[in-house]
Amino acid sequence: MGQRANYIIRQDGQEIVRYHHWRANRIAGDLYLGETVFLNFVRSCPIKEYILDHVWMEGCVCIDMDKKQLFFWSGEFAYDTSDIEYYLSQLPQKWPGWEVVMLRNRMYDAERAFGLDYLSWQEAPEDLDPVSEDYVINDITEEWSNTLVIVRNPDGLLITKSGNLSVDRILNYGVDIIPLFSHWPVAALPHEEKYDVLDTIFIDTITKEILINESTFGVWERSGHLWPGYNFTMGDYGYIGVLELAGIEAAHLRMSTEKVIENFNWLVKVDDGFDPNAFATAFLKENKDVEFNPDFFNNVKPQ
Question: Fewer CB within 10 Å: C terminus or N terminus of the chain?
Fold first, then answer.
C-alpha cells in the first residue's frame, strides 16, 4: 500500500537517492510548487541506498543540480495527451533556467537521460499464462472494455475493443492474434473526454510498427519474439498521442481547452489531507495482527 516515489539528486559528482512512500501520485503538483519548495521537500525525505525495483516504483524524479536538468515521470500521466501537453507547457515557468523533461518511457528513459545503471539489475518479467484462440475470439466488450485496438492493414483501419484482454496479453499472444480481431465488434475512435478503456494499442501490418500509450516495464522483453520483424514503441503519450504517432488525424477528438484547464487545476492543487498515522490507527482496529513498514508513516510534505 502506498504511492512510492524515488528522487535522485546529482550534485558535485555525488548521487543521493531519496524516497517517499506516498507522493508518487503528487509528483505533478509537487513539481509545480517550483524549484525552491520542491528541492527543500526532497531534501527532507529519507535517504535510501538503492533505487526502487520497477515492481514497486510508481514515480521518479531525477535532478542534476550542476546542469540544471529536471527529469520526471509519474503514473498520473498515462492517458490524456491534452492534459500532458498543457502541464508540460506550464511547468518550465516554475523552473526558470532549467531543462525540464518528462520521461515518457519511464526508467528506460531515465537510464539513458540520466546515466543510471538500472535496467541491468531488474528481474525479468514473469511469463503470462497463454490464452486460447477461443478465449480471444469470445473476448467481446459487454459492460467493460480493457483495450482500444487499432490495426492498419492494406484495406484501411480496423478499430475495435477487447473485453478483458490487456495490452500485455494481446502482445503475449503474438502476431497470430491480428486476424482474430475481426471477430470483435467494430468500434469508433472515442473523443478524448470519453476515453473509456485502460490502454490503446496500434498495430501497423504494413510497416510492422506497434505503438502503445503507456510505458510498461518488461512487456516487449517478454513478448517481442512473438512479433518477428515488428518495431515497438511505448511511452506515456496518451491515447491521442498514439493516434498522432500513427499518422491518424485526431484534432477533432481532442479535449476542450476548458476541460484541459479544469484538469490542470485539479492536478496541481495542493491536497495534503491524507494522514498515514490516522489511517493505520483505524486499520488496526479491524486488523490487529497487521504490522506496518516504518516507511508507511513517512508523511513529509512540501512546505
Answer: C
User: What is the C-alpha to C-alpha distance for residues 195 and 238, in angstroms, rounded to an integer?
Assistant: 10
Question: Would you say 92 and 32 are in contact if contact means Cβ atoms under 8 Å apart?
Answer: no
Cα 147 to Cα 162: distance, rounded to the nearest angstrom: 5
Separation of alpha carbons 162 and 144, rounded Å? 9
Dist. CA 26–CA 292, nearest whole Å: 22
Residues 108 and 140 in one domain: no
Q: Taking phi first (over 0 means left), then psi (-120 to 50 degrees means alpha), and beta for anything else, what does residue 115 get?
A: left
Tell whether the model's pLDDT for residue 272 goes beyond 80.
no
Supply 16's cell numbers.
Answer: 543521493
Residues 80 and 137 reside in one and the same domain: no
What is d(CA 204, CA 212) in angstroms, rounded to the nearest whole number? 12
Q: What is the pTM of this model?
A: 0.93
Residue 301 backbone dihedrals phi, psi, to 5 degrees: -135, 155
Longest dimension (CA), the chain: 62
Q: What is the pLDDT of residue 92?
A: 98
Task: Note whether residue 278 is domain-resident.
Answer: no
Selection from 159, 198, 151 nearest residue 178 by Cα: 151
What total number of domains does the chain contain?
2
For residues 140 and 101, state if they share a domain.
no
* 263 and 195 Cβ atoms separated by less than 8 Å: no
The x, y and z cell numbers of residue 167, run together, are 495490452
Express each pLDDT in 150-197 by its tens digit.
999 999 999 999 999 999 999 999 999 999 999 999 999 999 999 999
Tell whether 97 and 180 lie within a shared domain: no
CATH number of the domain at 83, please.
3.30.420
Residues 6 or more apart in contact with residue 245 via CB below 8 angstroms: 202, 211, 233, 237
